[in-house]
Amino acid sequence: MTDTSNLKMLGSQTEQPQNPDEAILETVPYSGTAEAPCVVRFTCPEFTSLCPMTGQPDFAHLVIDYVPGPKLVESKSLKLFLTSFRNHGAFHEDCTRMVGRRIAQATECRWLRIGGYWYPRGGIPIDVFWQTGPMPGDVWIPDQGVPPYRGRG
Amino acid sequence: MTDTSNLKMLGSQTEQPQNPDEAILETVPYSGTAEAPCVVRFTCPEFTSLCPMTGQPDFAHLVIDYVPGPKLVESKSLKLFLTSFRNHGAFHEDCTRMVGRRIAQATECRWLRIGGYWYPRGGIPIDVFWQTGPMPGDVWIPDQGVPPYRGRG
Amino acid sequence: MTDTSNLKMLGSQTEQPQNPDEAILETVPYSGTAEAPCVVRFTCPEFTSLCPMTGQPDFAHLVIDYVPGPKLVESKSLKLFLTSFRNHGAFHEDCTRMVGRRIAQATECRWLRIGGYWYPRGGIPIDVFWQTGPMPGDVWIPDQGVPPYRGRG
Amino acid sequence: MTDTSNLKMLGSQTEQPQNPDEAILETVPYSGTAEAPCVVRFTCPEFTSLCPMTGQPDFAHLVIDYVPGPKLVESKSLKLFLTSFRNHGAFHEDCTRMVGRRIAQATECRWLRIGGYWYPRGGIPIDVFWQTGPMPGDVWIPDQGVPPYRGRG
Amino acid sequence: MTDTSNLKMLGSQTEQPQNPDEAILETVPYSGTAEAPCVVRFTCPEFTSLCPMTGQPDFAHLVIDYVPGPKLVESKSLKLFLTSFRNHGAFHEDCTRMVGRRIAQATECRWLRIGGYWYPRGGIPIDVFWQTGPMPGDVWIPDQGVPPYRGRG
Amino acid sequence: MTDTSNLKMLGSQTEQPQNPDEAILETVPYSGTAEAPCVVRFTCPEFTSLCPMTGQPDFAHLVIDYVPGPKLVESKSLKLFLTSFRNHGAFHEDCTRMVGRRIAQATECRWLRIGGYWYPRGGIPIDVFWQTGPMPGDVWIPDQGVPPYRGRG
Amino acid sequence: MTDTSNLKMLGSQTEQPQNPDEAILETVPYSGTAEAPCVVRFTCPEFTSLCPMTGQPDFAHLVIDYVPGPKLVESKSLKLFLTSFRNHGAFHEDCTRMVGRRIAQATECRWLRIGGYWYPRGGIPIDVFWQTGPMPGDVWIPDQGVPPYRGRG
Amino acid sequence: MTDTSNLKMLGSQTEQPQNPDEAILETVPYSGTAEAPCVVRFTCPEFTSLCPMTGQPDFAHLVIDYVPGPKLVESKSLKLFLTSFRNHGAFHEDCTRMVGRRIAQATECRWLRIGGYWYPRGGIPIDVFWQTGPMPGDVWIPDQGVPPYRGRG
Amino acid sequence: MTDTSNLKMLGSQTEQPQNPDEAILETVPYSGTAEAPCVVRFTCPEFTSLCPMTGQPDFAHLVIDYVPGPKLVESKSLKLFLTSFRNHGAFHEDCTRMVGRRIAQATECRWLRIGGYWYPRGGIPIDVFWQTGPMPGDVWIPDQGVPPYRGRG
Amino acid sequence: MTDTSNLKMLGSQTEQPQNPDEAILETVPYSGTAEAPCVVRFTCPEFTSLCPMTGQPDFAHLVIDYVPGPKLVESKSLKLFLTSFRNHGAFHEDCTRMVGRRIAQATECRWLRIGGYWYPRGGIPIDVFWQTGPMPGDVWIPDQGVPPYRGRG
Ligand SMILES: [Ca+2]
Ligand SMILES: [Ca+2]
Ligand SMILES: [Ca+2]
Ligand SMILES: [Ca+2]
Ligand SMILES: [Ca+2]
Ligand SMILES: [Ca+2]
Ligand SMILES: [Ca+2]
Ligand SMILES: [Ca+2]
Ligand SMILES: [Ca+2]
Ligand SMILES: [Ca+2]
Ligand SMILES: [Ca+2]
Ligand SMILES: [Ca+2]
Ligand SMILES: [Ca+2]
Ligand SMILES: [Ca+2]
Ligand SMILES: [Ca+2]
Ligand SMILES: [Ca+2]
């Protein structure tokens, strides 16, 4: 049974953090450290932040893959963390890497990658692909399979 | 056999007209006027014009359906006509209707409709749907089936 | 049991007719004339004819729907008939209507429609939709559902 | 609660009937006759019969829509009935209509239609669409949505 | 602003009802009765009940469209209602109509339809389509667009 | 040429309105009132507002079709208007209708419909379909074609 | 011929086990151990368990690939085993790995992997990918190809 | 020119073999042994055999890839061989490997793999992937790309 | 600027060669030999030849990838070459390899592969995959991604 | 925070450069050089240039992947650069490589690849795939996933 004794948010009334610095990623101990490693994938189809130059909202579809070490990220705190970027200004490249880096730090995971698939602004969309290091050889990680952007017709 | 005696462009060296007013839509007599009417569909996946406000290029996927009367549009002149919008500035609504109106006038067709599926600029794409009048009751016209625009993910 | 006594081609060694005029559409009596009418759909994804102006090959995907009257078209003779257009020169509009008209005449059917979905030549494909008259009200005819042409990407 | 007292096959050891004439379509009373009518759709993606001319197996994907009257068809007997065509020789048109007619007779239904989407033999597939009469005006029947046949590429 | 004063479940700790009879569908007043009518669609991709004959679990994807009268169904109570079928035994036809009828009664809606797209058992899936009466003429209701069942390959 | 003399925002530095009441939908005269009517479709794949009960963000994909009367909506002001719902709390039904009603009022259009396709919260997504009145008989309006929600797999 | 002498469930009346601990995975000897190894894939599109924190039902689409050693898993007992999770509470990560581990133990297989594609709860779905060790080099294992989760539009 | 002098079936009247042991896989010499190797793929979307336990029909979509050595399999005899499983009882794993092994033996090919994608029985489909040995390094073999099974919705 | 001084066909009146032996593949010097290599892909969705045994037409979708050495193939002569197979009789395996071999010889390319995706004849389509040698390690060659053949439904 | 002090175009009134030589690709310093590398993908679905032989417009869908070194390309200048090919005449192979080479030079990136997916002219489309050197081993670069060209039907 997963040990949830250190969780502060689950089941309690939690406030939405107003920016990523305020947000806290909670974790639970991972019960599977003694057996073959697994991979966990989160998909966030509704991520939004602000353009640092113009203040206009930016939108992305994020897919995160990680190989847990001692801890799993707790999903309610993950959601509040992701929502906290709503009024945060950052370039696509910086924003994508920041989401990945924070989850990697909080979970002390063995490996993590993040794909940021950003909505087009002005016709040329940007995707950002980042990983903490080479993919480990002993796990199975399907590709993320997000279809490429296209125009019309 | 289709009568092609009045065609000026086919097989000859033709210059690209520089704007829609210069372009001439040639026609050939339609051999099927004595039997049940047919519908002809053209698809132009690579239409481009200019934004009248900013001079930036706009792009659209056009689909045109028409019920011929006495004349068919000749396809090489149609192509030169469509290409002539390359440096023409007009709003999406005006541009789409102008393409439809010109073909309807040149062919004296019984009925015509045009769907203009414009590439997004700034995240909100515009589609324009225009027809010369109510769809005739005695013909079969499948829907154009262009999939709706979507974002990412 | 379907009466096949008048069939000349089935099971015998048949020569490929060299053009549509040589081809003969054979028929079998339809056993269902006493009950509610049915619709029969043929799909021919590999139709080819020649351009009457340039002699280059043209290609089309044809879909034919008909409501049988006293006769069904025999499918081997249908195939030989369709293959006989291989070296026949005709415009898309004429060719599509000719296929439909010949089947309608041979079967004395109650109603027929044909969709000719032609491969692009020079970037602007042409579709031709023809029917012998208004769609009968007492039958069920799903749309042909051929996806619209698109470019690349 | 549905009255199942007249069912002979359900829960008992039933033999596969060897042809459609041997097969019996069992029914259960329909509990909804006092309220607004419903539509029931069966999909059979693996129907097979024999060609009456050559003895080769034919394959079809069948979709059946019906508006129950006093009785529902019992699904185990339906399955045995459909499987009983395995060694039955019949043309596509006859076979499709026979499946529809038998279910309509057994259930005394208000209305029925059947779409028979046959696998291609020799490159030109045949679809057969049949209904017992005009579609009733007070029910909701989505189209069957089976995608059209296509070749390669 | 929607009047939520009569809601008992929202924000409180609610127990999962153990069957549909125990479940209560709560409602909120609809603020749009004075203007043109709207249509509301719920999609439930994870409905499950039990087979009344064998006790085996059945699964369905449900889509519900309704035209509100004076009340909207409250979505948390809707979810608990749908989950309450988890250990309820009923035929597909009865189960689908019961879900629709209960929502129609609770909301006193002008019109409702439900599509029940059941997972296959034994290779032949069943869909059930039910509506409370003829579709009203003054609203816009897109088709539900659930793709047809197919086998493999 | 479209008359743009009354536009305040285009080309100038415009502030993002903080809520829908602050936002102003600008218009331009429609040049096509003397000929057959057209339909204009906007797609907004990245609409976001807040849940009025919990303050959590909600997301939707909106598709708007309208038949212009004397005025077209100017697209930059439309975008700012849509973005102004970012911190606005409203139920899905109210929010969708408000977007439609505001555009209809600003353009004095002949007819408008809006489809709001909301992301799932808690597993059961809601779609809202609203129109200002019966669809006019003399225009061509393709269906919006947004695929139905589904779960996983 | 497969040796089925030790099977207890096949053909007999078997009770549904109420939880995974009660369920027994039966096996049959694998007849192919003397030739090149094969891979067997099971797909379970309708797996359901309970959330250990809230008691709400969770749903997943599972895909399992294994390389048999001396034994094959018998498919009826596999199905009863999977259904036994219906009232079992466990986190997604634990539940997915438990299914894989139990099958690996019962079959003494050379290698196994499991993909658990969970339905979204609260907008952020979780996938879990686990394997017993590095993929063997001498077998062919296509990717599972489950499309990535996406939102709407 | 391919040497076809040893073919017995092509062009002659051939009987359908009643089981796989009766069926003979004929071959023709491969003309390309002196140049770089090629890969040949057969797709059989309509394979059917019987369940050895219940006698019920099973269905599969088979895809076979092989690298020819001195001989090519003749396609008419291949088809008769595949059809000969129609009344043959075997487990999915045995049946799939038997098809592959027989073709490999008849052609003395350098390498072969077979994917058997079986239709679901009772909700949990089985796929079987088998190859004669490690994939050769000097050929190009695209993946088979058969989409994964899924349920409804 | 590409050197086109040795081209005979471009801009002149060229006759269609009647078979592959008559056809000449012209080339132009490749300007990129001093930098990192590129890959060029041609797609020919409308290739047709004749069956050498029966004289019936065969159809294929061809995709060709090559890494240029000193020369590029000129595309008009490529098209005439491909069209010249129209009345040429050859087995699928021979025909596919002949197309590849001729282009490789004419261009003296570093590497070439060809995928021949043939339309089904008699229900079992054949694909042929051939390459001149091992794929070079320093180029990027996406897979050809042609979807697998399937039947109906 | 990204250092944007050297940007000349962002926020200022910029003229569209008339050809690629006039266009300047601006850059910003990359803030992530001290951590694991990322990959950035641009998609340009509406690239157009001119055929150097005939002056007719050519169209392509471009996808560019690069691994930043010290600099990121600024996206507004990238867009102006891509648009500057509108009246530039070049072969597909040259044009595609020129886009890639210019971005690689401007950003001094570690690695870059470009896929040019060109619209068909005369029925046989050309794709061009180019990279600056072998793909680095320490980054994650999903394939570009652009579906292959196909004809009709
Ligand atoms: Ca993959
Ligand atoms: Ca396009
Ligand atoms: Ca349609
Ligand atoms: Ca989306
Ligand atoms: Ca339809
Ligand atoms: Ca595109
Ligand atoms: Ca094709
Ligand atoms: Ca629809
Ligand atoms: Ca199939
Ligand atoms: Ca439509
Ligand atoms: Ca599923
Ligand atoms: Ca794959
Ligand atoms: Ca592949
Ligand atoms: Ca589903
Ligand atoms: Ca790929
Ligand atoms: Ca099927």
From TrEMBL, chains A, B, C, D, E, F, G, H, I, J:
<keyword id="KW-0963">Cytoplasm</keyword>
<keyword id="KW-0671">Queuosine biosynthesis</keyword>
<dbReference type="InterPro" id="IPR043133">
    <property type="entry name" value="GTP-CH-I_C/QueF"/>
</dbReference>
<feature type="binding site">
    <location>
        <begin position="73"/>
        <end position="75"/>
    </location>
    <ligand>
        <name>substrate</name>
    </ligand>
</feature>
<feature type="active site" description="Proton donor">
    <location>
        <position position="58"/>
    </location>
</feature>
<feature type="binding site">
    <location>
        <begin position="92"/>
        <end position="93"/>
    </location>
    <ligand>
        <name>substrate</name>
    </ligand>
</feature>
<dbReference type="GO" id="GO:0033739">
    <property type="term" value="F:preQ1 synthase activity"/>
</dbReference>
<feature type="compositionally biased region" description="Polar residues">
    <location>
        <begin position="1"/>
        <end position="19"/>
    </location>
</feature>
<dbReference type="InterPro" id="IPR029500">
    <property type="entry name" value="QueF"/>
</dbReference>
<dbReference type="Pfam" id="PF14489">
    <property type="entry name" value="QueF"/>
</dbReference>
<dbReference type="GO" id="GO:0008616">
    <property type="term" value="P:tRNA queuosine(34) biosynthetic process"/>
</dbReference>
<dbReference type="InterPro" id="IPR050084">
    <property type="entry name" value="NADPH_dep_7-cyano-7-deazaG_red"/>
</dbReference>
<dbReference type="InterPro" id="IPR016856">
    <property type="entry name" value="QueF_type1"/>
</dbReference>
<feature type="active site" description="Thioimide intermediate">
    <location>
        <position position="51"/>
    </location>
</feature>
<dbReference type="GO" id="GO:0005737">
    <property type="term" value="C:cytoplasm"/>
</dbReference>
<feature type="region of interest" description="Disordered">
    <location>
        <begin position="1"/>
        <end position="22"/>
    </location>
</feature>
<protein>
    <recommendedName>
        <fullName>NADPH-dependent 7-cyano-7-deazaguanine reductase</fullName>
        <ecNumber>1.7.1.13</ecNumber>
    </recommendedName>
</protein>
<comment type="function">
    <text>Catalyzes the NADPH-dependent reduction of 7-cyano-7-deazaguanine (preQ0) to 7-aminomethyl-7-deazaguanine (preQ1).</text>
</comment>
<keyword id="KW-0521">NADP</keyword>
<comment type="pathway">
    <text>tRNA modification; tRNA-queuosine biosynthesis.</text>
</comment>
<keyword id="KW-0560">Oxidoreductase</keyword>
<comment type="similarity">
    <text>Belongs to the GTP cyclohydrolase I family. QueF type 1 subfamily.</text>
</comment>
